[in-house]
Amino acid sequence: MPYLNPGAGAAREGRQAAAVTNVAAATASAAAGATPTKAEYDALLADVAAMRTKVNALLAALRSAGLMAS
Fold first, then answer.
1. Is residue 50 part of a domain?
2. What is the pLDDT of residues 4-57, one digit of tens each?
3. Alpha helices in the chain (DSSP H)
4. Residue 41: inside a domain, yes or no?
5. Has residue 40 been placed in a domain?
6. What is the pLDDT of residue 47?
7. Contact 16, 65 (CB under 8 A)
8. pTM recorded for the entire structure
């Protein structure tokens, strides 16, 4: 639903946030044993860092489009 405030509605209606690309495929997989190896942990950590970067990019895009407060 478009923003209906007569004073500000026209400026916001139809405005889009900048595009943010999808997150790449996950590199982590299920641990082979009861305790994850360093390589398994590092892969999971890299995936979490990539997700954090994408979430921050989405939030920045929403703020710059005026759809979310700074």
1. yes
2. 666 665 555 567 788 889 988 998 888 888 899 999 999 999 999 999 999 999
3. 9-12, 38-64
4. yes
5. yes
6. 95
7. yes
8. 0.70
Give me 34's structure tokens: 């009861």
* 27-40: burial string, b at 16+ Cβ within 10 Å, e else: ebeeeeeeeeeeeb
pLDDT at residue 16, as a whole number: 77
Overall domain count for the chain: 1
Q: Give the Cα-Cα-Cα angle 40, 26, 30 (nearest 5 degrees).
A: 40
By the 10 Å C-beta count (0-12 exposed, 13-18 middle, 19+ buried), 4 is classed as exposed
Six-digit token pair at 24? Answer: 């790449």
Longest dimension (CA), the chain: 61
Residue at 68 is within a domain: yes
- At 25, give phi and psi (nearest 5°): -60, 145
Range(s) of the domain holding residue 40: 36-70
